[in-house]
Write a structure and sequence with these properties.
Layout (H helix, E strand, L loop, with lengths): L2 H10 L7 H5 L6 H9 L3 H11 L3 H7 L19 H9 L17 E5 L3 H12 L3 E6 L18 H8 L1 H4 L3 E4 L6 H10 L2 E4 L1 H6 L26 E3 L3 H6 L1 H20 L41 H8 L9 H5 L1 H5 L4 H13 L8 H5 L6 H5 L6 H14 L9 H11 L5 E3 L9 E4 L2 H6 L1 H14 L4 E5 L4 H5 L3 H17 L4 E4 L2 H10 L5 E3 H8 L14 E4 L8 H13 L4 E3 L16 H4 L1 H12 L5 E4 L2 H9 L4 E3 H5 L16 H19 L15 E2 L2 H9 L4 H14 L3 E3 L4 E6 L4 E10 L2 E11 L6
Parallel strand pairs: 1-2, 1-4, 2-3, 4-5, 7-8, 7-9, 9-10, 11-12, 11-13, 13-14, 15-19
Antiparallel strand pairs: 6-8, 16-17, 17-18, 18-19
Helix pairs in contact: 1-17, 3-4, 3-14, 5-6, 6-14, 7-13, 17-20
Length: 772
Amino acid sequence: MDQAELRQLEKKCIQEEAPQCVAACPIHVDARSFIGLVRNRAWDDAWKVLRKTMPFPGILGRICDAPCKERCKRGEAGDPVEIGALEKICVSKTPPDLRLPPIVPKGKRVAVLGSGLDGLTVAWDLAKKGCQVTIFEPGTSLGGNLRNLSPQILPPDIIDRETAVLNRLGVNVQLEATVPSESLLAQLKDDFDAVYMGPDAVGAVQSGLKKNAHGKVEVDLQSRMTGMEGVFACVSWEQSLRSPVWQAAEGRWAATSMDRYIQKVSMTAGREKEGPYATRLYTNMKGVSETRAVQTSDPDMGYADDEAALEARRCLQCECLECVKVCPYLAHYKAYPKKYIREIYNNESIVMGTRHSNKFINSCSLCGLCERVCPENFPMQDVCMNARLGMVQRNKMPPSAHEFALLDMAFSQGPRFSLVRHEPEHSSSAYVFFPGCQLCASSPDKVFETYSYFRRKIKGGVGLMLDCCAAPAHWAGRTEKFQDALKSLERKWTDLGNPVMITACSTCHKMFRDHLSEMEVLSLWEMLMQVGLPETSRGPSGNKILAVHDPCTTRNEPEIQRTIRHLLKTLDIAVEELPLAGELTECCGFGGLMQNANPEVAKKTVLGRARLSPSDYVTYCGMCRDNLGGAGKRIIHILDLIFPGSRNADPASEKPPGWSLRQENRARLKERFKAEVWNERTSHMEAHLKIKLLISPALGEILERRRILEEDLQKVVYNAEKTGNKFENVETGRFKASYKPYKATFWVEYGPSENGFIVYNAYSHRMEAIQA
């Protein structure tokens, strides 16, 4: 990802876009932060927020006409927030000490004719930038037309207090100055590097200035420059008369132009968002109830403290975060895509040192929900997937990140599970059933029953293919391994005569659809719609309502989702739709190898999904069923209803098999198919598999968390007993041994027993030391 690509992706995330109130304000006061502080009565901090962008907040905060209210999102559900009233109570508090920033003199002199709010702002801004400013005020005190306002609205002592800061900035003030004239303006042009004219000054020297067709002084809309070189003036004075904040903005824009003029740089570049503008920030108003503005008990005095805090609480604190709201993974890292993509970019750019974002990159489930809910369709899953691919290509992906999943995939592709056959007594296949590796690991009996049912119902031969679709290699960014696996699957499919592939797993369905375009793929559920359900199919006892959990890999498969609901209706099952369903369904925590890379986030993900409804769930994905069931959620697989058989009377309460049993289930299923369907029996068993281990339930749970299979332990014990390479604790009689069957090294503490070997503890090092 180069800088151009980075910038384009960053632009798609709108979380940092300004809220409507800030974008509507001519000087872009951070109203969101300000109101957030007012709700907590943090008055000093609220003062500082105003002071950051508001010139003379003690003045402007009292008279601001708050044009931001017109675009306040709260106004779409009730009254807009009374931002102006909140500014007023804040500035009525004693202001915190004002610390001026260090000022580096530029050696440039600026003249300001008039001390209205626009002229004062010009002086304030340019003095802070190091210019030597002189204000020429015809009156006897600073403030110009501000002095004409009611003392109840703007007390004169407040004007004096606020403008006194100009003295600290070194601004020279000349009161009772000569009324500007053409000759005076010409002299000021010679004595100063730039000159700003307030409205009265413009009126006094009109005859010497260029006018437009309507007889008004011509001022450039963006630069605020008049026809005279180095002389600047207000553009929209009529609007400024109606709006104090616009008046201040005119001064700010003029000050910006004058500073750029003095520095001899572009006076127009990068000023697209000067003044009110349209923001891209999206704020979801769904579920926001209407509220009315808090009424003050004393209209003359304005809000009291408690009233202001109540009114501030009505603020929606507008932000987007649509993706973060629905994704536990994004929420876990406490940021949002724009920040995440910068972290990933920096992570990829590291030549030497620690890559702190590796775990973050590998923790994404790649489900695509973020893109679906994002107003700008930001594809966080693509960013993470591309980062994984890049890390693998540059040999920067830690082997431990995905090793367990890749080994499990290799098991499914290996001789103990892989099987490809035509239906008995058939030399060709119109269809081939591909149940996928995880459903076979979880519900081998249902897979066997399904295939047996298809043999009875489907004409033209239905073959069987036991294998893995290679999704783990794809998710891990192992392109070569993934492509090799796909080619192998394609060859097997071609050898069968290119039959229609019937997939029971939505991930397999997606892999084949996305990467094997020549293959015709049909979901198991669509096939059942064609051939009909078995007569023995039935709904759960008690006429329960079942909430449908759609696997995330069906996000773009509405036909499969509709088919599932039709099947459930056929079974007379009342269906509940989860808050996030269909195209907005959430991942169960298995996708993208999240469980392997970040068990903590995977747990948050599955628990969040499980809590969406108190109803029992029904799903059509083996891993979704096992993950949610493992989190304590009552859930059944739809095959439990279609093929109830001699099932548990309450299948929703069944615990999912552990990782060791999952592999054992696959191996046994293959042997069952060979024995009962093809009448073949295998007696061969690898030597280490004959080792009998006794493992307590408590240790079994630990081994599950550590992703240590029983077969891994069998290999260690077998190797230790065969070679004698083991340590003995003479006090306990226990042995400790290690074995490295691949990149992981396993350690086992065990002891002999009449029935085999008792395992007391086991752990592994999933790393490999290499010489740089």
